[in-house]
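Q: My collaborator sent me two sequences in one message, no labels, and asked for predicted structures for both. Can we handle them in order? The first one she listed is below.
A: Yes, handling them in the order given. First sequence, followed by its structure tokens:
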Amino acid sequence: MNCLLKRVRLPSKHFLKAVSANLLVIIAGALLIALSLNVLLIPYGLLTGGVSGLALIIFYLFKIPVFASIIVFNIPIFLWGAKEINLQFFMYSLAGTLALAALLPATEGWVPVPQVDLLMAAIFGGILSGAGLGLVFRGHGSTGGSDIVAVILRKKKNLGLGEVSFYSNLLVVGISMIFFPVNTGLYSIISMFAAGKFTDVIITGLNINKSVVIISDRSFLIGKRIMDEMRRGVTYFEGTGAYTSEKKAVINCVVSRFELARLKSIVAETDPGAFMYISDASEVLGKGFSAPK
């Protein structure tokens, strides 16, 4: 008996804790999506992207509950995805889909519908929906539908997630133009755009850092000042000028947007002729920045 117990590897406490935390995040995200639909999008006749958008069209035309259409549409998608996506994403996505389907009827009437104009409903409905979707993604899941299709097509056809999301939204808007007034589709586009932007905000955070590349004849002095005065690490690369064929040390470093002005000042004081270019680094993991999740 003892030998048998040794062979059976029970899940560790760390694993169970991680799964529980992810499920709570997914449920919280599904709750926000359900509220956005019940409080802002459905009362104002707006649409959202993907399978949820198709479910809304069915609801507006035939009064079939949104949660029922979401379940029906997702059955073939999950059957398709069962063999194509990894088990963890499959199970978390199943949890997200079931949570959304359960919370949609459960949250009806929780919050009174605010009296706002259609534009505000579209924007804030999209923001609330995007925040919920971002939380679901942070829980390593999805709400099924086009998200699972996107993962499958990325694997099979090398299509990007953004492409699949764009085409699924385009399909919803195109269908809406046939059955509903034009302004419904146009305001829904605004809502989808707000949702996409706020999903990115939740996933990557508001703290956009800056990746800086500096090419200078005094690279080592600039690098030393960055390390001493800003307490930021630097990396040196060896570069060769195409015109002069001279070898130079190229500096690469990452700073917060609040530190960028100080970095520019250091470069300008040390070498006014230095060449520098700056780009956004939406997510930086490591010492001095975010811890790996």
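Q: And the one she listed second?
A: Here it is, processed independently of the first:
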Amino acid sequence: MKRAIPTTVLLATALTATLVTGCGGDANAGDDDGTVTVTVGYQSKTINTVTAGTLLRELGYFEQELKARGAEDGTTYRVRWQDYATGAPITAQMTADKIDIGSMGDFPLLINAARGEQLDRPTRLVSVTGYNPRGGLNTIVTAPGSKLRTLNDLRGKKVSTSVGSAADGTLVRALERAGIDPEKDVRKLNQQPSVGASALRSGSADALSQFVAWPGLLAHQGRARALYDGAALNLPTFHGVTVRERFAEERPAVLEAFLRAQIRATEHLRAEPVAAAESVARATGLPAEVVYLYNGAHGIATFDPTLKPALVDALKKDVPVLASAGLVRDVDVDAFVDDRYLKRAYGPAYPRALAAGAPTSRAEVWFKDGTTRSFASPTALLGAVAAAGDTVRAAYVPDTTTGTSWFADKAVWVADGTKRLPFVTASAADAYTAGHPGARTVPYDQALRGAS
């Protein structure tokens, strides 16, 4: 049965229509002096998009590519960067011809595609920024002192999320798998991430379901603890780059220049993950330790621009979720995905890049001198942290079940013989101890002492 469309969704749709009809013009039309302006919409604090947004802007690679392009065609190019909190306003501006290229999460990408078709201003998905093969980029968190421990505890509770976002999709799917009706059994609050974070802190929301980097930020600040790891769904989540079809057709060389710049930014992030995290932290005001949790060498996100079949298949599975909420009718995903420009930007290296998979999660320590060290096991990391004392800046461990990286001091630790096993959530740790006689949860400081 199709769910009733929430009033907040109807209002958001009306706002989008108002923005579209109230704006005119072409984002990349030539200025009076002949300069061509390319407008890029991005989300600075959604740090899974940094290779097409914050980091790319800081590195200046797109401007460099356009300068080289201008030297060939005699055109002067200018880049206008526009920062937003979520993908919805980027879509509104794209369908108003005010933004040429935008980056957003998988669920907003589908809404982007649907709105573009609806308003006869089609858009195309041309690359991926970062992804997690299991869904670990989204997390449901509660207040630190909350008695909520499992998804079942959310019955009758108020949960803040951003309707239509990837985090909302995680919430809906997680609740449905637990036998909980997302519309009837919980009170969903449609809020911007920052508003939801404040609501959680004030107690006006019992839980918060959000996308990168909000869960990690709140956990790092001691303002939240994880209730549900999105990777438990075992469904890929990703962010990607969408472009106005008209722009792509009229200025394909400019789009390819953007994608070459994104590829370069991705290579920089992989080669210099600490420097990239520090750069993004300076630009966004986010703690570098939080940025590194997601974007680090063994972070939650894998940065790879290629349009992998598994991600496209996951996007198709997202359509019914959005349709049941009344956010889209249908989306032709195969028509929306267009890898022609990315293939040309990569050249002969594309097949090999497309075939590459996500790296294996490893425990990692970031020391105050700027160096990092990875470990084969969380137990080995604990021993190193105990020995290093106050020279440790941050320590990260992969969840024993899902592989999702988390702060070592925020993880739920289980002692099982000589092994120390980390989990993102208490419910995952409970499930492990229930199946392993003798295993027990222990505080972080006790886990450290046991490892040393």
